[in-house]
Write a structure and sequence with these properties.
The complex is a heterodimer of chains A (114) and B (113). Chain A is mainly beta. Chain A has no helices and 11 strands. The chains are: A mainly beta (114), B mainly beta (113).
């Protein structure tokens, strides 16, 4: 079965640079979630989108922005990167609809900020 | 204090043992309870999903929810070395716009031969 696809899988950036992470949800899933997982920590919710509209917002820094496109893929844009942004970034998808169904996670993008 | 508390372990058991993993939570709004398994450097993999109180069984896995005590458990029977991973409990409620998950810190499990 098709899973959530994330790209790139690994990314190395320097402080103050910009990074863009991409997420392609499972076919027919219309809700996308972004989570950040620091070393040895649990995933923390950043932001979610349903039908291309932001549906919820968590502890996402103002330096980060995200959107969902017409094909339901989503991009997380991170600017003015800081050392503390080094983490695993997961995308999850669910749907169709806002039914209370489970989220399926992608393999993650490992971001290292030097 | 975190909304969801989970013993981080590590928990080491012999092959074939019954494993019990637990989480407690403080937010009464949580209605949906999930268990994810995460191997090192991989994405969380959904294991079990339950709604409200009760038990749910799937093969060697049994999920148990006690909403009155705000306590959930995952039991693994006949544990295998391939079960060695970090187990994360996760919860969500009716937020009115998507179901963000709140995770426990994860319990690291090692099943030894």
């Amino acid at each position: 079965a098709a899973g959530v696809i994330q790209s790139p899988r690994h990314l190395i950036k320097e402080k103050r640079e910009t990074a863009t992470l991409k997420c392609y949800p499972i076919p027919r899933h219309d809700t996308v979630y972004w989570y950040q997982q620091g070393p040895g920590q649990d995933p923390q919710f950043l932001i979610s989108f349903y039908e291309k509209m932001q549906s919820d917002k968590g502890s996402i820094p103002d330096r980060f922005s995200a959107q969902q496109f017409s094909d339901y893929h989503s991009e997380l844009n991170m600017s003015s990167l800081e050392l503390g942004d080094s983490a695993l970034y997961f995308c999850a998808s669910s749907g169709p609809g806002l039914a209370l169904e489970t989220q399926y996670f992608g393999p993650g993008t490992r971001l290292l900020v030097l | 204090q975190k909304e969801v508390e989970q013993d981080p372990g590590p928990l080491s058991v012999p092959e074939g043992a019954i494993v019990s993993l637990n989480c407690t939570y403080s937010n009464s709004a949580f209605q949906y309870f999930m268990w994810y398994r995460q191997y090192s450097r991989k994405g969380p993999e959904l294991l079990m999903y339950t709604y409200s109180s009760g038990n749910k069984e799937d093969g060697r896995f049994t999920a148990q929810v006690d909403k009155s005590s705000k306590y959930i458990s995952l039991f693994i029977r006949d544990s295998q070395p391939s079960d060695s991973a970090t187990y994360l409990c996760a919860m969500s409620g009716l937020t009115g716009g998507g179901n963000k998950l709140t995770f426990g810190t994860g319990t690291q499990l090692k099943v030894e031969l």
